[in-house]
Amino acid sequence: xxxLNKEDAQALLKKVLAFSTSDECEVSLSGVEGGNxxxxxxxxxxxxxxxxxxxxxxSVYGKKSGTATINEFDDASLKxxxxxxxxxxxxxxxxxxxMPMRGPISYKESKSFIPATAAIxxxxxxxxxxxxxxxxxxxxxxxxxxxxxxxxxxxxxxxxGFFGYNKGTDVIFSxxxxxxxxxxxxxxxxxxxxxxxxxxxEATRVAAQKANGSANAKAIEPGKYTVILEPIAATYMxxxxxxxxxxxxxxxxxxxxxxxxxxxxxxxxxxDEKVSIYSDPFHPELPDATWNGxxxxxxxxxxxxxxxxxxxxxSQFWAQKKNVAAxxxxxxxxxxxxxxxxxxxxxxxERGILVSKLWYIRLVDAQSLLLTGxxxxxxxxxxxxxxxxxxxxMRFNESPVIMLNNVEAxxxxxxxxxxxxxxxxxxxxMKIRDFTFTSLSxxx
Amino acid sequence: xxxxxxxxxxxxxxxxxxLPKSMLYANQVDAAALLDTRFDIPQKKRMADxxxxxxxSKGATYTxxxxxxxxxxxxxxxxxxxENVVNTESYGIGIRVIANGSWxxxxxxxxxxxxxxxxxxxxxSIAKENARLLTEPVQLAPQKGQGEVSWKTPIEKNxxxxxxxxxxxLLLSVNDAAMKGGANYMNSLLFLVNEQKYFASSDGSYIDQxxxxxxxxxxxxxxxxxxxxxxxxxxxxxxxxMGYEYLNPSAADTIKGLTGNLYRNRxxxxxxxxxxxxxxxxxxxxxxxxxxxxxxxxxxxxxxLTIHESSGHPSELDRVLGYEANFAGTSFLTLDKWKxxxxxxxxxxxxxxxxxxxxxxxxxxxxxxxGVETQEWDIIKDGVLVNYQATRDQAHILGLKQSQGCCYADxxxxxxxxxxxxxxxxxxxxxxxxxxxxxxxxxxxxxxGESSYSIDQQRYNFxxxxxxxxxxxxxxxxxxxxxxxxxxxxxxxxxxxxxxxDKRDYRLGGSFFDGKGQPGQVxxxxxxxSTTRFNGxxxxxxxxxx
Lengths: 444, 546
Hints:
The complex is a heterodimer of chains A (444) and B (546). Chain A is of the alpha+beta class and 444 residues long. Chain A has ten helices and 21 strands. Chain A folds into two domains: 6-211, PmbA/TldD superfamily (PmbA/TldD fold, 2-Layer Sandwich), CATH 3.30.2290.10; 217-245 and 267-311 and 329-444, no CATH class. Chain A has helices at 6-18, 75-91, 115-118, 122-138, 200-213, 231-242, 247-251, 316-322, 342-347, 400-405; strands spanning 24-40, 43-61, 64-70, 141-158, 163-179, 185-192, 224-229, 277-279, 301-305, 308-309, 334-335, 351-355, 358-365, 370-375, 379-383, 386-390, 394-398, 407-410, 414-417, 424-427, 430-440. In chain A, helix 4 (122-138) packs parallel to helix 5 (200-213). Chain B is built from ten helices and 27 strands. Chain B is globular. At the A-B interface, strand 1, strand 2, strand 3, helix 2 and helix 4 of A face strand 2, strand 4, strand 5, helix 3 and strand 9 of B.
């Protein structure tokens, strides 16, 4: 059984800690249960199951630490693992930046565990896939997709009295549908804690509509255009920026958050005032863990408020060095949106491009956070508030910082996943002016 | 699909290590434990036979078994500090079967007799379950049993036997050299991989392999606090299928390149750090490029990645057929282009070859993860598409009598599938040095080292950047340039080749964590090339202000 309840996890961790003789000791237990199905050409290609339970022990002497892990849980194995961590710690080089472990905290329970998702069986997945394949076959399209569900827990206890337990579930689904001629392609992706919100037939209908709608695309001249990024596209773009909400690299002068002359941009207007970005593990649409591995309780943190940088994360070491309070990087990201629907954003656009998805985004210049990538699976030209015709995919070179300075309007935020990391976010569709496309692609 | 960003650019605020999933699930152990071989070959053969017999008795018509022990060691430092030393081990058995014409797979880390037999039975039941949704039964190319054989990466010095202290001392001395050379920050890393794989199949193969890989690398950062500008210069090393001997500098393997030192089969990390510290300062004051068309002279340290993305991935047969459509994408090299026999992929000078044999390469093994002996074959011959990369269940599509040996799984717990072999550009046939190439270029850019890379899902349109750029004017290499990225279309790019240096300049580059599949798997692959000239390529200026 890979998923332990709080009481059983606590009892096991207590037992392991009692074997420790080091200055400090931290024990963490994590388990994952789940499975996946992959399909292509309208048929299942692979299916797999996951079931792992692992205990990690970190022993510390002074500023030397060692970690050992094990997946056997009898007393002799646990003792041996503690001894190995302690031997490793004694042999390891001193880390001058080591910070002592933290003591007990109080934290509120997370809402990230949904029993219905934890109850998913292989036939639940097979049924979800069969529904998707049916939609694509009925639409005379070929589909390739992937579904994966996970139930996981983590419990951490240390010799300073800290104990944290969190359990969560998630399910992700993505599908690509293509027409027989290879001239049209569509995509949809969904990610939820609660499987009852997942409708694979609905998602596949969206992908099918994009595939049929994107066939026989016309080429337009690359250049600067007003774009409407659907949440899937915006999420992938912005994920590259969220990673930079860190004080140390900013203070060290090697981030887009660095201030010329030294220091970081906290307090500065970085982007348009329509932009507010925060973390909140208690948000009902995006519940997440309410404490982190460093031993901090997590709560709402505003990173950008009305365009102004409000907070950056500070590791314990960097906070001490800078004489400020440590600020952990929270586990989820929410960007506030407006009230407009995607259709209303399109309606209010005189000339522009609707981008369904972005693909293969990579950093070009860390200084400006310039990114390159391409549109994929449904790119459409908008004129006088209406989608006029599908257009060929294009490569862009754009910085999310510049992009968020060029916000015309934001739609209603919705739960969306990154196509690269599979992480879930709450991100609105957004209308951006002067988005820079640099070349055409023949790819469908 | 893409190379895994295993180290996030430190300037993006992470500095953290992004390990592939297979490594995250591995257990951390002490360095000494990595040298304990756990099971000998007769024990592994006994376990494999349990699985083969159990699967057959449940109705499998074909079975293969992989008993794998996967070891990794990571030594991570910055400036004068060791950030982390991580040792991981993952051990278990993966059993793949065909039953009722369909594939089934199951894996376990419990190597008791009962557990192995149960896992084999589970693989058969999964195959039978999958067969209910079958559209066409698996057609497996014939493969004769190899008998009891073994293969080992021909290393000179097992890197896992080198004490941690020696590795830490090397990295800290490299960091010190960069800091003394004027760097503001320095991150260095050493990655080691050892795959101990035992493969057995119902064809009668029992194959024991011991595979080693190594990758030393670093990133030097220079800051101008007043202007807030910064630049980085990454190592010019390559990941290699070698032991610790790769880190023993050798004059014979140090190339005095057009603008500085380059390395072949031995890497002088200390010298590269000293050179890098100087070059990163030069980058700070380099001229920003004027966008436009240039003749590019590209060193193998940069070209390997362009080959990986624009030649390697589009010739993967599973992509061509649509099996990767939902993630990595499909390919512009469709079967009709291959059947036509005259698809003009590149200029007549372009010969691209696939292999899993080249000494020191990441792809070199004796047998693939289906028990197929490794080999070499042409993908592009005299500019024309002639072949793809296939596994046993794809060989019939190409009319092949045998698989090309392109099957790989990144762990015992992952199911094997088609992965890229080494894909290399053959050196030019005429005697020609990089200097000979440059002397005929009127307006060009010489490019060294890899950086940003991006390509579309069918592998037409790409954009690459690099570590070092130098202006070429009237046949002479001039000052350094910055803010350079080249954008092209694969077919146009390879048709613009007008010169390839000869084999004296041939070197391997490589991707250590090439990602593909859902759930994602990594693989390591090398790409050989000599310095090559591409005429009239579009260069953009990437400088933007925020």
